[in-house]
Design goal:
alpha+beta, five-stranded mixed sheet, globular
């Protein structure tokens, strides 16, 4: 956008604050406190200064735990629009978390930000490793009609010849998308003279993005102007963990004198979006995800880095979304306790693990050990909520006491389902095995079950510690209704019914759908009885060298592959139940102990 022949440059002071990454959370927080102390000092001296706190709220909360006396001053600055927080609670990865988790992230971020004075209404996702197609739909659901991003969209910008385009979700929702093609650090340090070459410009020169001759800062502005659909340039004054730059207003006034073709304005992402909308350029429309690593890497290896974190996250999301919340809501509708404060506490812990350097598994070991503790805490809450809700429902559904033990079974899926159920009942394993208990389904028909073990639990400790043993049982639940509940009962009936059929056959397992042949090296041959096709050699294990880092798989120059093919292992039947059979194969693979010191091959020692 030109004013009196000058191109408008909107400079947005900010920091990109990874809560934990190459330092642990508490070490990063030490420097966060220093950075925000400086920010408040600058705001006190310069009433025109504005600052974006990375589009998330959690950094503000982390700061206030150390500086609670600064809360009222921060509230004033946020209400005045001089410090911008939210709309996210944390800057998440989009591909590794559920859609519901993204919505909860924005819900929590918006709620907390409003309590402090207001949330930024821009979709700021500066450093996410690629973007899902549904993000515009999610943002529009919160009244956000913009997206500011860096990675994954270079090919789209090249196709349209612009840093801006309209991004449309599968359902038709659109946002104005601005791609920070030179990164969210393009103005990390505003130079004091045109001859200066700040670090971010040196990096762009080294990558061949800027011409090394002449004024690098002028070259940066000229290159950004070439791709500006509305003639307005966005300059991000900040970078990873950067404290605010002192004297920014004077520097911009100086540059405005030296570069008469540009008008420098201290502003916000909202100011930039308004400038583009005012000009109303004709923009191209992109539909679908943004995951092309043309100039900014997407780092696809993080999808499987530290897989145990991804598995724990999937388990917790399912526990919260499919069990704790719907059962808590159902029990509340029937007069039970409101369990939502506990549920939100669990969600908060899980969301803290969704920061992109956390859930992607790209941080130092202490960071990920702390993540495991957060997941464990969230799981303890979610399981307690689920147990309490089921207990309340069972008490309201069970018939008059007949000496039996009611077992409430919930199907969280929107379709009828048959599956194995595992439940805990207030009896010892020996008691169930020896005293002739029988399990009845909701229609009173006997159901086979097995005792898998027992655990020591503590209940109702407010009345004094009450410790007792619970037995874990497993049984098949047939045709549970969609999003429905079935009431099973354990009763004393003398003899247990016969266990019924076995799925174990010579050489493997078989039911009406498949025959699985298990070989001594762990490989499987699977016959699909419905199609007659045989799939041979499944479950082959391979181990290869990786000389890369926490982001990228990089095979060493001399790659060696260790395979389970041809090994002789120990094969045993570990479960033989009417509804379930399990064969275990135990193998020993001689794996290289490490890379060689030169990292060109794997060690000969195994």
């Amino acid at each position: 956008m030109e004013r009196d022949g000058r191109t408008l440059v909107i400079v947005v002071p900010h920091t990109h604050w990874d809560r934990e990454w190459y330092l642990c959370f508490e070490e990063f927080r030490w420097w966060l406190v220093k950075a925000l102390d400086r920010l408040i000092s600058i705001c006190d001296r310069d009433p025109t200064y504005r600052f974006m706190l990375d589009g998330q709220v959690i950094a503000l909360q982390d700061y206030l735990e150390i500086r609670p006396e600064r809360e009222e001053r921060l509230r004033e600055l946020i209400r005045e629009g001089r410090i911008l927080i939210g709309p996210w609670y944390v800057q998440p990865d989009e591909a590794l978390v559920s859609g519901e988790a993204l919505i909860r992230n924005l819900l929590l971020g918006r709620r907390l930000a409003e309590a402090y004075g207001g949330a930024m209404a821009q979709g700021y996702v500066p450093d996410i490793f690629g973007h899902i197609a549904q993000l515009p739909q999610i943002l529009r659901g919160f009244g956000i009609d913009t997206a500011f991003l860096t990675r994954g969209a270079d090919d789209v910008c090249d196709r349209f010849g612009s840093s801006e385009f309209l991004w449309e979700a599968p359902g038709g929702a659109r946002v104005l998308c601005h791609v920070m093609e030179k990164g969210y650090c393009n103005g990390a340090v505003i130079p004091s003279s045109l001859e200066d070459t700040p670090p971010q410009l040196r990096e762009l020169i080294q990558r061949g993005v800027l011409d090394p001759n002449g004024s690098p800062f002028r070259a940066l502005l000229d290159s950004l102007r070439e791709r500006a659909s509305a003639g307005a340039i966005l300059l991000l004054n900040g970078c990873d963990h950067r404290a605010p730059q002192e004297g920014l207003g004077d520097l911009l006034a100086h540059l405005g004198e030296k570069l008469p073709g540009y008008e420098f304005v201290l502003g916000t992402l909202g100011d930039f979006a308004a400038a583009v909308k005012e000009r109303d350029p004709k923009l191209g429309v992109h539909r679908g995800e943004l995951r092309v690593p043309k100039r900014h890497p997407i780092l696809v290896g993080v999808l499987s880095t530290r897989m145990y974190l991804k598995q724990a996250n999937a388990r917790l999301q399912a526990l919260l979304e499919r069990y704790a919340e719907p059962l808590g809501a159902l029990s509340l509708m029937l007069g039970g306790e409101d369990l939502s404060p506990f549920i939100w506490t669990a969600w908060t812990l899980v969301l803290q693990n969704h920061a992109h350097d956390s859930i992607c598994g790209t941080s130092i070991d202490p960071v990920h050990r702390e993540m495991e503790v957060r997941f464990a805490r969230a799981e303890a809450i979610a399981r307690r909520v689920t147990t309490e809700a089921l207990r309340f429902l069972g008490e309201n559904m069970a018939p008059p006491d007949d000496g039996g033990i009611p077992i409430v079974v919930f199907n969280p899926c929107p379709w009828e389902r048959t599956d194995e159920v595992r439940a805990h009942v207030p009896r010892t394993a020996r008691n169930l095995e020896e005293d002739g208990w029988e399990l009845l389904d909701p229609n009173g028909n006997p159901v086979p079950f097995t005792v898998r073990g027992e655990r020591l639990v503590s209940e109702d400790i407010t009345a004094g510690p009450l410790h007792f043993h619970e037995a874990e049982i497993a049984f098949p639940a047939e045709s549970l209704p969609a999003l429905g509940i079935g009431l099973y009962r354990l009763v004393r009936r003398g003899e247990r019914p016969p266990s019924g059929r076995s799925l174990v056959v010579e050489g493997g397992l078989e039911n009406e759908f498949y025959r699985v042949t298990v070989h001594g090296d762990g490989r499987l041959d699977v016959l699909d009885k419905e199609t007659g096709r045989v799939y041979r050699g499944l479950n082959l294990l391979e181990d290869v060298g990786d000389a890369g880092d926490e982001y990228n798989f990089s095979p060493p120059e001399e790659q060696g592959v260790v395979s389970s093919a041809g090994l002789v292992g120990t094969v045993r039947i570990s479960e033989d139940l009417p509804w379930r059979g399990t064969v275990e194969v135990e193998l020993a693979l001689p794996l290289p102990i490490s890379l060689r010191p030169d990292r060109k091959a794997r060690s000969g020692e195994t």
